[in-house]
Automatic annotation (TrEMBL):
GO molecular function: hydrolase activity
Assigned keywords, A-Z: GTP-binding, Hydrolase, Nucleotide-binding
Enzyme class, spelled out: hydrolase
Chief location: cytoplasm
Gene name as annotated: SRP54_2
Domain Signal recognition particle SRP54 helical bundle intervals: 2-87
Methyltransferase is among the record's keywords: no
Protein name: Signal recognition particle
Cross-referenced Gene3D superfamilies: P-loop containing nucleotide triphosphate hydrolases, Signal recognition particle SRP54, nucleotide-binding domain
Cellular localisation: Cytoplasm
EC number: 3.6.5.4
Length: 142
């Protein structure tokens, strides 16, 4: 499954729910199930998917919602927040030290934009007082 297909399926599930005329618990459960299925088919760990599913259901509790609450926005926000939590690495970002060698390695398929990204990153660090050097180490370049 391509990553774009995963995003498309998640968007479609949320959009189908928010467009439905009667926003009830049955439609909500169907949306959560569709998102879960899309994640499992994209090889996301089943424990993470189960945790995401329970967190979304806990956040959007139809029995405790006030009558004036915009259910559609609440559901969209809950899904977005839980997906962000799913991909958050909980790690501190790379913090290079001036005066030392800091190595950043980019790996990817041909034509995916590595050279462009590396050049932009080198320029960004140069503007902040770092000395930047790019080394092209392609195994094959036409």
């Amino acid at each position: 499954m391509v990553l774009q297909d995963l995003g498309r399926r998640i968007n479609a599930a949320v959009n189908d729910l928010t467009r439905s005329p009667n926003l009830d618990e049955k439609a909500f459960d169907g949306m959560v199930k569709e998102i879960s299925n899309a994640l499992v088919e994209a090889d996301v760990n089943i424990k993470l998917v189960a945790g995401l599913r329970s967190s979304i259901k806990k956040t959007v509790n139809f029995k405790e919602l006030a009558p004036g609450v915009n259910k559609k926005r609440l559901i969209q926000k809950a899904v977005f927040d839980e997906l962000v939590k799913l991909v958050d690495p909980h790690a501190t970002p790379f913090n290079p030290k001036k005066g030392k060698s800091n190595v950043i390695m980019f790996v990817g398929l041909q034509g995916s934009g590595k050279t462009t990204t590396c050049t932009k990153l080198a320029r960004w660090y140069s503007a902040r007082g770092f000395k930047a050097c790019l080394v092209c180490a392609d195994t094959f370049r036409a």
